[in-house]
Design goal:
Strand content: under 5%
Number of strands: 0
Mean pLDDT: 83
Number of helices: 7
Radius of gyration: 37 Å
Structural class: mainly alpha
Oligomer: single chain
Length: 249
């Protein structure tokens, strides 16, 4: 089950409240509609969450640029303030470690364990003075444990509501697209986005170096062109003399 800090369990709202992520999604929708213009899919009002992972599959003709690269290029040129949207999702990776099924099983096991403690206390209470000290310690533990279990149950309830709300925020059915699938898809999308943006930056740098080198080579060519004054053209009637020339009187 999940071993992280309790507060990480309820942070789904960090994803839902990210304005930058929302604007990136809107840009993706706009790009998709532009690509599908003139078709039945050209006026979509949304898209399936798993479509985010297909952005690296769509490539331009005769080029290595994918739709993900193009998305990064558009954002860099027109909406550069959105490029750091992954910073809004710092708890996303921790969220992928949450397995709601295991949490439910652990919650059930804890509740059953508490019931056994209550039963043990009841049984020990019938033993009289022999179990008096034991019962006292058990009562103190139970008072503490019951509060902790109530707190945990409340937290688990919040997690469940947030998990369903996250799927519905992206227009998905929580029953068909569970929490684990949502956060895993988003994390993979963020990683692919970062990789594509880095590749774009490298390509821009390479193109710049290539252009600078070509410009430098062009300067060198101009500098080595023959100077007109270095090749003297004799005037009409001027003799062309050489070491072997002789005069004839």
């Amino acid at each position: 089950g999940y071993k992280g800090e309790k507060e990480n369990l309820g942070k789904c709202e960090q994803i839902r409240t990210s304005v930058k992520l929302k604007r990136v999604m809107q840009t993706i929708l706009s790009l998709g509609n532009a690509l599908n213009q003139g078709t039945a899919r050209g006026s979509a009002v949304g898209f399936r969450l798993d479509s985010l992972l297909k952005l690296t599959d769509t490539r331009a003709r005769n080029t290595k640029m994918t739709l993900m690269h193009y998305l990064c290029k558009v954002l860099a040129e027109k909406l550069p303030e959105l490029l750091d949207f992954p910073k809004d999702l710092v708890s996303l990776e921790n969220s992928t470690k949450i397995q709601l099924k295991f949490l439910a099983e652990e919650m059930q096991a804890i509740s059953k364990g508490l019931e056994k403690v209550v039963q043990e206390l009841t049984t020990s209470g019938n033993d009289g003075l022999v179990s008096e000290a034991f019962c006292k310690i058990l009562k103190e533990f139970l008072a503490y444990a019951e509060g902790e279990v109530r707190s945990l149950a409340s937290l688990y309830s919040v997690v469940g509501r947030n998990a369903d709300a996250l799927a519905m925020y992206f227009g998905e059915d929580p029953a068909k697209c569970p929490f684990e699938q949502v956060v895993s898809t988003l994390l993979n999308f963020v990683r692919m986005f970062i990789r594509a943006h880095e590749e774009n930056c490298k390509n821009i740098e390479l193109e710049k170096k290539k252009a600078d080198k070509e410009a430098e080579n062009e300067k060198l060519k101009i500098g080595h062109r023959p100077n007109d004054s270095a090749h003297h053209v004799p005037l009409v009637g001027e003799s062309r003399l050489s070491n072997n020339s002789t005069f004839h009187s």
